[in-house]
Amino acid sequence: MFRVTMKEDLNDQDYYLEVEAPHVTKHWKPGQFVIIMTHEKGERVPLSVATINGGRVGMFIKKLGKTSVELYREFRVGSSLYAVSGPLGKPLKLEDYGTVVLASDAVCGHAEQLGLAQELAKLGNKVISIQTFKTEKEVYPEKYLTTKYADEHYITTLDGTAGYKGHYIDLLRELVARREVKAVFAGGALASLKKLAEATAGLDAKVYALVRTIMVDGTGMCGSCRVRYNGVIAYACRDGPWFDARLVDWDDVLRRDARFKKIEKIALEKYLAR
Ligand SMILES: Cc1cc2nc3c(=O)[nH]c(=O)nc-3n(C[C@H](O)[C@H](O)[C@H](O)COP(=O)(O)OP(=O)(O)OC[C@H]3O[C@@H](n4cnc5c(N)ncnc54)[C@H](O)[C@@H]3O)c2cc1C
Ligand code: FES
Q1: Residue 84: how many CB atoms within 10 A of its CB?
Q2: Of the ligands numbered here, which is closest to the C-alpha atom of 223?
Q3: Sequential pLDDT tens for the chain (274 residues)
Q4: Which atom of ligand 1 is found nearest the CA of 71?
Q5: Ligand 2 center to residue 69 CA distance, Å?
Q6: Which atom of ligand 1 is nearest the CA belonging to 237?
Q7: Of 39, 54, 176, 196, which one is least surrounded by beta carbons within 10 A?
């Protein structure tokens, strides 16, 4: 059993959850993720690793559907999760690129930034971090932002209530016009990542994206997380979840992500009506 050691609101929709999982912390590398289960018959939920504190793994979670809401409502410090599997996925092969931009607009991107910023700085990179939120009220508490790990840190909000007004793609366009950026690592909404691939089509830099597909087993066996990548089929859980953004078939990724929307809506409604 995997004991919850900390739970904290990040804003109205997102929360931080820390659990004991020393088997993960011993082996985890940036780029890898975990799959949690609340109960023996619960669904398997892939989550990025935001923090590692001794034998404890911290995650940022959005209250989106049945399991993320159930986890928020019914689990508290001292409760135990049924399973925390991992680390899963392929670790990123990081190097000293020069100037690197980290960008995110949703929980799984903000989480990944923390580990990436520390590792890239250790390798000698100049790290520029951009974190996009809808509005000032949604900006995470300072200790969960990438601020202290990056050489430059920018908040952007879509409504302009804090920091730069716009999305990280808008700010990235401005940055690459006047700076020599050699690598970009971006997470967030799938539609944003498609736009990022288009916006960086002619950029002389590596552009990696966290491809958040629907996963089941997380080990390359079930085929659920299939991604059309550079003309072949890849599996996000085994070959990713980070891929060269410009080689991903984003229309296919977006289509596959919508597969279970109706069932997911019903599952949440049933849970809330209990
Ligand atoms: C590598 C990876 C890292 C992720 N990191 C985070 C993270 O750090 N924080 C976070 O909040 N979310 C993260 N996600 C997404 C998270 O797994 C889903 O939001 C979660 O499964 C939703 O479950 P639910 O029951 O609450 O909602 P549901 O109603 O079941 O689903 C809501 C939406 O979540 C996505 N989703 C649902 N089931 C899965 C699944 N089995 N695998 C992947 N996506 C799914 C779909 O887009 C779906 O429409 C990550 C996904 C992947 C693949
Ligand atoms: S989740 Fe089953 S193959 Fe990737």
Answers
A1: 20
A2: 2
A3: 899 999 999 999 999 999 999 999 999 999 999 999 999 989 999 999 999 999 999 999 999 888 999 999 999 999 999 999 999 999 999 999 999 999 999 888 999 999 999 999 999 999 999 999 999 999 999 999 999 999 999 999 999 999 999 999 999 999 999 999 999 999 999 999 999 999 999 999 999 999 999 999 999 999 999 999 999 999 999 999 999 999 999 999 999 987 767 777 777 777 777 7
A4: 26
A5: 23
A6: 1
A7: 54
